[in-house]
């Protein structure tokens, strides 16, 4: 019986020095669509491989963090890597993250964390011990990144460039309408308040409609203040979006709010979403519209 898995299955094992950037690495690969597991004990690798096989091609890009937080299992890591090398359907790749001792000490002091190998001692003691334990593993790595001089954004860009098939950073513009009376969305990056615009709610036959209805949309968009607002907002966003993308941000949530989230905010979210869809992957969501209708472009 065929499992459906192919030798195109990609597995990235992220390891290296504590404080060298493994969290940034796993988050970056997750943004690229990798199925990610943080701190997988090597003893569970055979079971995990079985799950991958049973999933068919649903888990064809996997990233695993294995480090000394699971040091009681660490002796099993080389055995797990040897088993992986013998599989015909998965291509494992080890990404080893390193940094010099002064940088690692500084990062531990900045975060006020204790080193996992020196919970009651000096960070440098744990760093030196960890470096000794990881020496052989570093020799088996296909990729070694020294992050001493890297900012998190630079490490993210390096990983996206290395592992993205199309070599383009994935960046999605999410435009959301909402009603202030239901609360501001907690995941919004930018919030625009359009309650100053003429409100279709006060026109009786438009009250049960939404901004998805053509009559309401035309009413909201016809006013000179609406056109001036859109002119200024689109100019601002055209300036900001490339900078957000270059900074390594995976998505930007633009929230447009009116009183109830039914009319003005919906019409303007639709306008902005369609305005930017020619240049960006765009998603339009109407949080508080009746029936909770969503539309994706």
The SSE order reads EHEHEHEHHHEHEEHHEHEE
| Helix proportion | 25-40%
Report the biggest beta sheet as strand number plus sense, adding barrel if it closes.
5 strands, parallel
What is the residue-mean pLDDT, rounded to a whole number?
84
* Silhouette: elongated
Number of DSSP helical runs: 10
Structural features, described:
It is built from ten helices and ten strands. Helix content is 38%, strand content 20%. The model is unreliable at 1-7 and 291-297 (pLDDT under 50). With 297 residues, the chain is of the alpha/beta class. The strands form two sheets. Strands 2-3-1-4-5 form a five-stranded parallel β-sheet, sandwiched between helices. The chain is elongated, with a radius of gyration of 25 Å.
């Amino acid at each position: 019986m065929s499992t459906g898995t192919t030798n195109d299955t990609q597995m990235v094992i992220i390891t290296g020095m504590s404080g060298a950037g493994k969290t940034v690495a796993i988050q970056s690969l997750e943004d690229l669509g990798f199925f990610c597991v943080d701190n997988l004990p090597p003893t569970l690798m055979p079971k995990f491989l079985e799950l991958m096989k049973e999933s068919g091609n649903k888990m064809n890009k996997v990233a695993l963090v294995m480090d000394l937080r699971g040091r009681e299992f660490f002796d099993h890591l080389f055995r797990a890597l040897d088993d992986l090398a013998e599989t015909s359907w998965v291509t494992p790749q080890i990404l080893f993250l390193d940094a010099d001792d002064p940088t690692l000490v500084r990062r531990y002091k900045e975060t006020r964390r204790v080193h996992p190998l020196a919970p009651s001692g000096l960070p440098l003691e744990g760093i030196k011990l960890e470096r000794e334990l990881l020496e052989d593993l570093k020799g088996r790595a296909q990729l070694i990144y020294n992050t001493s001089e890297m900012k998190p954004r630079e490490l993210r860009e390096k990983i996206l460039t290395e592992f993205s098939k199309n070599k383009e950073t994935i960046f999605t513009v999410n435009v959301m309408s909402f009603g202030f009376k239901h609360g501001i969305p907690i995941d919004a990056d930018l919030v625009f308040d359009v309650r100053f615009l003429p409100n279709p709610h006060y026109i009786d036959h438009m009250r049960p409609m939404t901004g998805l209805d053509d009559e309401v949309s035309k009413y909201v968009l016809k006013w000179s203040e609406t056109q001036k607002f859109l002119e200024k907002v689109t100019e601002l966003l055209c300036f900001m979006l490339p900078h957000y993308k270059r900074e390594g941000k995976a998505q930007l949530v633009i929230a447009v709010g009116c009183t109830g989230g039914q009319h003005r905010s919906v019409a303007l979210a639709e306008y902005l979403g369609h305005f930017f869809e020619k240049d960006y992957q765009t998603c339009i969501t109407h949080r508080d519209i009746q029936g909770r209708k969503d539309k994706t472009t």
